[in-house]
Amino acid sequence: MRISTWLVAAALALTGFASASPAVAADGNPLEKTNGFYADPDSNPATWVRDHPDDSRASPIRTSIATKPGARWFGNWSGDIRAAVDKYTYAADVADKLPLLVAYNVPGRDCGGESTGGAGSPQAYRDWISAFADGIGGKPAIVIIEPDALAQLDCLPGDARQTRVDLLKYAATQFAQKAPNTWAYLDGGNATWIPAATMASRLQSVGVQSIHGFVLNVSNFYTTAESTTYGKAVDAALGYAAPFVVDTSRNGNGHGTPDDQLWCNPPKRKLGASSQLGGGPEMQLWIKVPGDSDGSCGYGSGNPGVPAGTFSPDLAGHLIRGD
Q: Is 220 labelled as part of a ligand binding site?
């Protein structure tokens, strides 16, 4: 059966969000309209397993990753974004499952790093994110808005910072207005990147109060406990208990020591808790797709390297084993 209202209320109460934020309301709650999280049948690991049935790595990847609920990322590779989002959320709706989507197309994405790219202009982004929200419409969904975009404000020159703030605020408004059964979360960086008070100020500037909350640790490795402590500090600076979720896809061993490469396919990381309610944050979610490379670096280096967003069965194996 679908997740009941009392179970959702109990989970939110345990995380301290039951009555604090006006954004948490029974009406439009996607958890109440679905029966668990959606496992993308066409994710990169699922596709790889289907294409390599005789590979010795296929069975553990199928069991540990490919069949687990997680997010699908949408960007400039997605084609007609309204059609792509509509198709994905419709398939989840038919299955009575809750889909997780990541919007990842802000201009100047990743500040020229391994995941560089994004829409070609501010207006192109407005058109894109508006169509994204249209694609969801009234279907239930969870959306992560632009990982790293707020935390990376400092890498942008002058007026480009305000432009990004304006675009993220526009994105939040689109989901608030067009997707009434969607919980949208603005990205809030990770536990040690930006001081909590600074992140709270940035979240306020892009309209976090108009949507459901914020997300931490996307594509990173900090423990859920560390992320929860940081999230509560951000909430204290905000002045209200905005719900937050944590990416647990690769945080099973924490973020490692300063001697490790901490962000790009580092060694000794491990799968974390699968997508679920509670556990410190409002939800623990697999947002980064385990096995998808961070870039041609760390365990993804070599000749040739593994580009960002490309699935590698070897990277997946390291995460399964934790080595």
A: yes
C-alpha span between 50 and 20 (Å, rounded): 45
Q: What is the pLDDT of residues 296-312, one digit of tens each?
A: 988 888 878 999 999 99
29 is in an annotated binding site: no
CA 158 and chain centroid, separation: 28
Q: Is 183 annotated as a binding residue?
A: no
Locate tokens 């990416």: which residue?
247
Measured between alpha carbons, how far is 35 from 241 in angstroms, rounded to an integer? 26
* pLDDT one-digit tens code per residue, 150-174: 999 999 998 999 999 999 999 999 9
Domains with residue ranges and CATH for the chain: 5-321 (3.20.20.40)
- Residue 288 marked ligand-binding: yes
- Per-residue pLDDT averaged across 222-249, rounded? 98
AA identity, residue 119: A
Using one digit for the tens of pLDDT, what is the confidence trace for 38-65? 999 999 999 999 999 999 999 999 999 9
> Could you tell me if 298 and 245 are in contact, meaning their C-beta atoms sit under 8 angstroms apart?
no
List residues bridging with 216 in a β-sheet: 246
Query: How far apart, in whole angstroms, are the C-alpha atoms of residue 188 and residue 178?
Result: 23
Find out whether 122 and 107 touch, Cβ atoms under 8 Å. Answer: yes
> How far are the Cα atoms of 16, 88, 247, 264, 288 from residue 152, in angstroms, in the given order?
29, 29, 18, 16, 18
Catalytic residues: 148, 294
Handedness of CA 266, 267, 271, 273 (dihedral sign): negative
